[in-house]
Each structure stands twice: as structure tokens, then as C-alpha cells.
Amino acid sequence: MKTNHRIPLISPPQAKADILHLLHARDELQQHLFHSARQVRQQAGMALVKLRGVIEISNYCQKACGYCAIRPQNCTLERFRMDTDTIIAVAHDIASEGITTVFLQSGQDPKVDDIVCEAIPAIRELGVEVLLNLGEKSLSTYERYAAAGAGSYILKFETADPILHQQVICSPLSERLQCAEWIKQAGMQLGTGNIIGLPNQTVESVAEDILLALRMAPDFVSSSPFIPNEHTPLQDHPHGSLELTLNAIAVCRLLFPHALIPAVSALEKLEPDGQLRGLNAGANVMTINFTPKDLRDSYAIYSQGRFVVKLDHAHNTIARAGLTPGRPQPDVYLQKPANPMCGQTLDQLFPTRGTA
Ligand code: SF4
After folding, report:
1. Which atom of ligand 1 is nearest to 107's Cα?
2. How far does the centroid of ligand 1 lie from the alpha carbon of residue 214, in Å?
3. What kind of fold does domain 12-326 have according to CATH?
């Protein structure tokens, strides 16, 4: 179908205005945006959907993020920390399903550092890669993880607005950005991203999030809708917009052709088939939860009634998106320059973008 809609150029002088225009897209323009994102994903060799198996290894945390029930002020939560043997046993379950990324996630809990460093080499022996999301650490701790065999680390900045960041995350944005630098310096791939729907966050602020992500040059990037969580200061704040989150995913795909971009479980929490819509907006990762059931209910990072992604749901969703699970293979010939902010226009990079 031919349309008159044009995805605007995203070039340095215009970037913010162009991103804002796309974040506001609805109806036919939004469908065209999603179509362009899928085309970019395909052309970049990123149309296979990467499966990750997550193990939530501790719900102790030093931080106090206003949206998260794992914050230490929540006395209703039963706390747990897995031992090394349990982590390795669950990682074995992940590998036996043919999933090649074991994703260890926890609150910011210093007591997991030794446990994780002991577990990583044994997990690597299963023939899988290790992805971590354990919070803000010192450079030397990131170097320990990398030396143990971790290949990548997710540290979301959540919002690029330093005032909002301080209000919601209760620590300076600059500290998180410093940690992101250290993750790269330690030799791990970096994943980052934002939350959409925080109090007083504007669409313009979301555009700033995407521009910050561009400056950070991550290997993975994500957008997640805010989900109100019981026993937190933001429990009565409305959830984030699904449409805005999907548009942010699609814009990220245009700007990061070769990135891993997840269709997060919070999309499914907002709407049945939310993750399918995420894949249709250009995402290419699904994370399957392998945390043992008795502990999973205490991992309240999103909400007590969170949507827990199982293997059959992921396979079903991927098939309905017309995609296949696998390890995306970036087309190296398209990799340089991958970023339209380098001065190329989307027309130059993706000449077919005018069709839908
Ligand atoms: S979002 Fe992460 S760092 Fe913040 S309180 Fe929750 S578990 Fe801790």
C-alpha cells in the first residue's frame, strides 16, 4: 500500500523535532512508522528474535526507586538471595531449552557479587552467554564480572531528565551514566533504556531519553511503560502509554538498526498481545522467566500481578509476528555508518521507507 506519509529525516539539526513528531504518531502514520521499523530490522539482519532466560537472583536492594516494590522501605516483601548452586541449576534448565543467553537480574545487592562471579564460569561452560542487570557498581566490580565471563550488562538510565531522575531514582543521573561508562570500559556490551509514564514526564522528555541513548551508543536499548506498583510512592500514578512506548521502540529501531530491542513483559501487562505489538514495532528480544515459582512472586520489580513470560507464550508470540527465534546476525556491510545522527538521512539509509 502506498501512503503519502514520510518518515522525517532524523539528522542532527532537526533530530529532536523529528523524534517528537514520530513519538506523537497515531493511526496511519503510526502504522507506517512500525512498517519502517520492521524494514530496518530486516535490512540490518536483526529479524530473528533473541530469547533470553532470566533468573531473578536477589530481591535485596540498596536503592529506593519510587516505582519499585523491591525498594528496602517495602516491609511487606519477603526477601531472598539465591546461592551459587541454585543459580547454576536454573541456568542449566535455560540452556537445555536451547536458549543461549542466561540473564542474571537482581536488586542492587552487594552480597550477590561473589555469588555471581562464582556462578558465571560454570554457566559459561553450558555454552551460553551471560547478561547481567545488577545495578550500579564500582569499575572494579564490573571488571570482576567481565573477567569471570559476563559479556553484557544492562543499566537503564530510566529518564534523561536529571531532576526527574533524582526525584524518582533518588540518586544523581550522573552517577548512573558514570557506571554505564565503566561497564563499557570493563569490556562488556551495554544495554540501557528508559521508562515511559513517570510523573510529570513529557513526550519531549522521552525524545531527550532517545537522544541520550544515542550519545551512550549502547548495544541494547529498551523502552518500558511505567506500571504502578503496590507499596511504592507511585502506586496511585497512572500507567505509561502503550502507544507512546511502541512509538519509542520503533524510533529506537530506526536509530539503532543493529541493536537488540526487547518487547518487555510490561507491554503484555498493559494489554493482551502487547508484546506482539512490540515485535511489530521493531523489537527483537523476548525474555523468558525461569525464576523458581516460590521466589518469583517476591520479585516485585514491576508489580505483584506482573505478566510472567513463559516459553510457550514467547514462541506463540514470535510465530504470530511472522518471526523466528534465533540469534540475530547483523549485516556487517550495513553497520557503518549505522546511525543517522552521523549525518545520513533515513532516505539515504533506507530508500524503501516511503512504501507501506
Ligand atoms: S528498580 Fe532496581 S535499583 Fe531501583 S529499587 Fe527496584 S530493584 Fe532496586
Report:
1. 7
2. 24
3. TIM Barrel (3.20.20)
Q: What is the pLDDT of residue 297?
A: 74
Give distance in angstroms: CA of 229 to centre of ligand 1: 12
Counting from 1 in the atom list of ligand 1, the atom nearest the Cα of 136 is 3
Nearest to 307 by CA among 273, 283, 262: 273
Tell me, what's the pLDDT at 302? 58
Is the bond into 325 cis (omega within 30 degrees of 0)? no
**Ligand 1 centroid vs 8 CA: distance in angstroms?**
36
Report the residue count for the chain.
Answer: 356
* Domain boundaries along the sequence of the chain: 12-326
Residue 244, classed as helix, strand or coil, is helix
Residue 71 CB–ligand 1 contact under 6 Å: yes
Residue type, 256: F
Handedness of CA 20, 24, 26, 31 (dihedral sign): positive
Check pocket membership of 61 for ligand 1, CB cut-off 6 A. yes
User: What is d(CA 311, CA 308) in angstroms, rounded to the nearest whole number?
Assistant: 10
What pLDDT digit, counting tens, does each position of 116-155 carry? Answer: 999 999 999 999 999 999 999 999 999 999 999 999 999 9
65 lines ligand 1 (CB under 6 A): yes
Q: Is 301 in the pocket of ligand 1 (CB under 6 A)?
A: yes
Tens digits of residue pLDDT in 29-86: 999 999 999 999 999 999 999 999 999 999 999 999 999 999 999 999 999 999 999 9
pLDDT tens, 250-298?
999 999 999 999 999 999 999 999 999 999 999 999 999 999 988 887 7
Q: What is the pLDDT of residues 225-251, one digit of tens each?
A: 999 999 999 999 999 999 999 999 999
pLDDT, tens only, 290-344: 999 888 877 766 555 678 899 999 999 999 999 999 988 765 444 444 444 433 3
Q: Is 63 in the pocket of ligand 1 (CB under 6 A)?
A: yes
How many CB atoms within 10 Å of residue 12?
A: 10
Residue 152's DSSP bridge partners are 131, 189
The reply to whether ligand 1 has any atom less than 6 angstroms from the CB of 135 is: yes
d(CA 234, CA 239): 10
